Structure formats: C-alpha cells, structure tokens
Amino acid sequence: xxxxxxxxxxxxxxxxxxxxxxxxxxxxxxxxxxxxxxxxxxxxxxxxxxxxxxxxxxxxxxxxxxxxxxxxxxxxxxxxxxxxxxxxxxxxxxxxxxxxxxxxxxxxx
Length: 109
Hints:
Blueprint: H1 7-10, E1 19-23, E2 28-32, H2 33-42, H3 45-60, H4 69-81, H5 86-95, H6 97-100
Helix pairs in contact: 3-4, 3-5
C-alpha cells in the first residue's frame, strides 16, 4: 500500500500566500483563495452582465451585435431574477430567438 503524503504540509513554506486584494471597478476587497475570489466577483453586477454576454457569445458562436441588445437585456433580467442560476441561463439562451433563429449577422428579436 502506498502511504498518503500531504504535500501541503511538506511544502507549506513553498506555497505562495493565497491572500490577495482586488482593486478594480468591478469588485474590491480582500479575499483568500479561489472560492472567495469567485464570491467577491459574483457580488458585482458588471461581472454578472459580463458572464451573461460571454455565455451568449459562446452559445451563438459569434460576437454580439447591436440587434442583440434586446435579447441580452432579457437574459440579464432573467439571470438576476432567477438567482444567478447558471443552468437557467443556459436554458434561457437556448430558448432565445437569437439562438433558435441563428443568423450569421446576429439579432433574433
């Protein structure tokens, strides 16, 4: 049997400090670790809108265009009102006209 070795304890002195500080328009404050960073970023409305836009772009395989503004507005509204549920965001994107009536030039509504 191979003994379990906790590398964190052995190399604790070599690990970088996981305390960092975010100073930006989108979010600010101190956090420790990746989960705390994600929680800090999730508090920002700008970051949530960016998440919606990036998922929209990925799902449609293209950048958004001005005619997508209505769809993005609805997606942002629904994302906020559904508790920032990523599963619901993906469903809403798939049900959007922009996705269902895919156009190389954008805009579904």
